[in-house]
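Re-running MmcQ-like protein to confirm reproducibility after the cluster update. Everything else is unchanged from the original entry.
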Amino acid sequence: MDHHQVHQYFMSKPEATVSQPFGEGVDVYKVKNKMFATLALGKKMGDVESQLWRINLKCDPDEAHALRDIFSSVLPGYHMNKRLWNTVLLDGSIPSTEVARMIDNSYLLVVKKMPKKAQASLLLHL
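Result of re-run:
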């Protein structure tokens, strides 16, 4: 998935919104005012010219570590709680279906922390 496809996938989630509360260049995706993802273009690091788009996704702590072991482009969450968030570099090394699965899990983790009434209205659309 590239950053355009990821944005479209985020916005296809029920009641998803996007804003830039951290400033220009960092899109924050929320459901009912709760963040489930970010999308940003990475900074140039040292002599590395290629800038990669990256997403931050909420994750179960055990799965977060497993994904980091499996995929070299999955890192501890950049500027996030590293136990609960992963940063995924959109370098094409992870199959699109796996990126979509990680996005789905992030969204569902946030929804499942909401009151039952809010959960029910969102889960109806999935």
